[in-house]
């Protein structure tokens, strides 16, 4: 973890929790954050954005949406616009999660359009990239990450990078219990930063946080986040239990302290 970049921990709740469960979880997370050293953002399902907004109000936790539409308004049944998300008080959105890229066949170009919509609406974004097991086995990890980044960042100016967190989430590690080794994850993050450096000036790229997602838990968080190029994590299942999620936040802060000592 680079000492100049504020670590980021996101909790992606996916399609989980009841309304009351979301309120209770959000409150527990919000009240359990003991410092501002780490940026903490939770991502509840769309229906719970407003109750979560109340639950985290005036706390150190922020919240965001798990997706958004490329459209601003109109006859688009079932879609939710960036403007609606902002109107709920959210400040973040996840773009290009692998469960949407692969499960719902969202193309790299569509992910890029969603990223630009988020930025236009003044949302910050977690942009997800990552390879499948087959792609990894074929030695294509860096190629896939570069392709997804190139498509997503088309038309995105350098000044917008301050509002983008890149999440490297190898598809084969999500929800499987398998985690990339620290060295492999750090190498992928280094390559991602090099790709960014091919598009933007060094000063803009240096500040971009690149986080890891893929079966992160309280047991492996500190070792992962101690790697020089891993600036935090996007947490799935472990974010549904406040105690475990807060343990990951604490581990992230310890990893940060160790790199600064």
Give keywords.
single chain, 261 residues, alpha/beta, TIM Barrel, globular
Structure description:
This protein has eleven helices and eight strands. 42% of the residues lie in helices and 15% in strands. The chain starts with 7 loop residues before the first strand and ends with a helix. The model has no long low-confidence stretch (mean pLDDT 95). The protein has helices at residues 19-32, 49-56, 82-87, 98-101, 108-120, 133-137, 141-153, 182-199, 202-206, 221-225, 242-260, and strands at residues 8-12, 39-43, 61-65, 92-95, 124-129, 164-168, 209-212, 232-235. Helix 2 (49-56) links the parallel strand 2 (39-43) and strand 3 (61-65). It has one domain (39-239): Aldolase class I (TIM Barrel), CATH 3.20.20. The chain has an eight-stranded parallel sheet with strand order 7-6-5-4-3-2-1-8. Helix 1 runs parallel beside helix 2 (49-56) and helix 5 crosses helix 7. The chain has 261 residues and is of the alpha/beta class. It is globular.
């Amino acid at each position: 973890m680079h000492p100049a970049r504020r670590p980021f921990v996101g909790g992606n709740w996916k399609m989980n929790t009841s309304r009351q469960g979301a309120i209770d979880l959000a409150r527990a997370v919000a009240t359990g954050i003991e410092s501002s050293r780490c940026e903490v953002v939770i991502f509840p399902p769309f229906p719970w954005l407003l109750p979560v907004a109340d639950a985290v109000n005036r706390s150190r936790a922020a919240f965001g949406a798990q997706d958004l539409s490329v459209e601003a308004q109109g006859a688009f049944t079932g879609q939710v616009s960036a403007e609606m998300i902002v109107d709920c008080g959210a400040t973040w959105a996840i773009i290009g999660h692998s469960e949407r890229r692969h499960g719902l066949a969202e193309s790299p170009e569509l992910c890029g359009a969603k990223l630009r919509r988020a930025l236009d609406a003044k949302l910050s974004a977690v942009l997800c990239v990552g390879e499948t097991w087959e792609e990894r086995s074929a030695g294509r990890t860096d190629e896939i990450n570069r392709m997804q980044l190139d498509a997503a960042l088309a038309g995105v100016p350098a000044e917008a990078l301050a509002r983008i967190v890149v999440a490297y989430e190898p598809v084969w590690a999500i929800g499987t219990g398998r985690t990339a080794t620290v060295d492999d994850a750090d190498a992928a993050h280094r390559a991602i930063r090099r790709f960014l450096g091919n598009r933007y000036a060094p000063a803009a790229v240096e500040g971009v946080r690149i986080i890891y997602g893929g079966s992160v838990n309280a047991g492996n968080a500190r070792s992962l986040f101690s790697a020089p190029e891993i600036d935090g994590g996007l947490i799935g299942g472990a974010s549904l239990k406040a105690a475990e999620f807060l343990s990951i936040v604490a581990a992230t802060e310890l990893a940060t302290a160790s790199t600064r000592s």
